[in-house]
Amino acid sequence: MFLVKEHAKDHFITLPTLQKKLLDKFKLNVSQSTLSRFFKNNDFITNHPLKKPLLRGVNIEKRFRLSKKFLGITDDQLKRIIFSDESKFNLINSDGARYVRYLPGKKHKTSNILPTVKHGGGSVMVWGAISYYGVSDLVFIEDKMTGGEYKTILARHLFKFARKHQIDDFIFMQDNDPKHTSSIVVYYLDEIEVNLLEWPPQSPDLNPIEHIWAYIKRKLAVFGKLNKKELKERILEIWHSIDANMLQNYFNSFHKRALEVYKAKGKHTHY
Q1: Three-state SS for 262?
Q2: Which residues are in the Transposase Tc1-like domain (predicted)?
Q3: Domains (ranges, CATH) in the chain?
Q4: In the chain, fewer beta carbons within 10 Å around the N or the C end?
Q5: Which range has the worst mean pLDDT, 3-12, 141-150, 216-225?
Q6: Alpha-carbon distance 216 to 240, whole Å?
Q7: How many whole angstroms separate alpha carbon 18 and alpha carbon 84?
Q8: 80, 81, 82, 85: CA torsion to nearest 10
């Protein structure tokens, strides 16, 4: 069947594109509602695609290797980890709606996932960190952050955060963003003898702080359109409302996340 073959080539193909292909190839003028009904009658689900990082072969291997290592982290060690990250909060939803069609149970297949890219414009950027016991100061990033500016953030906030929650000999997690691995940051962290957690590339699904960013974005959705000042105020308000119970639930899911990655042999998980 022509429609099934075209869908197999591209699960994101739009109804207008299929309309044009049918007209060009078969001189058939088929309505979008008829096309939509065809997919529905053949058990296809139409939905917004999951957005996850594009996983490359070498990074799949690293995810698999490190997920096994993470499964060996004890509960006491987990309580010493400080997870950090940057996140983007859009002023408006400017990403554009896209849809994907898939058969039941196939939502998490790579062909049905929309690869994400790092941060764009029209947004507010923040840096934050979480521990088993609480949240750090939240830092707003006004311009494109350099390695030097990232080092300044760590110098001002990392040890202050660890001291506040009395985390002795903490383990610091950061992802593999070029700013984080720049020579100035590597030298600084080595100089102050920070114990770094080796982290696999393209692995937000392993980082508990991703739950926090998602939680904040859900809370923000109820406010509708906000200007930049209002958005910052709301983000701060929600960030500081996050309590230890919520954080501990997310921390306690870490081994479960690692197990999912291990079972998937480093490929995408349900997280």
Answers
A1: helix
A2: 3-71
A3: 2-42 (no CATH), 52-95+116-263 (3.30.420.10)
A4: N
A5: 3-12
A6: 11
A7: 44
A8: -170
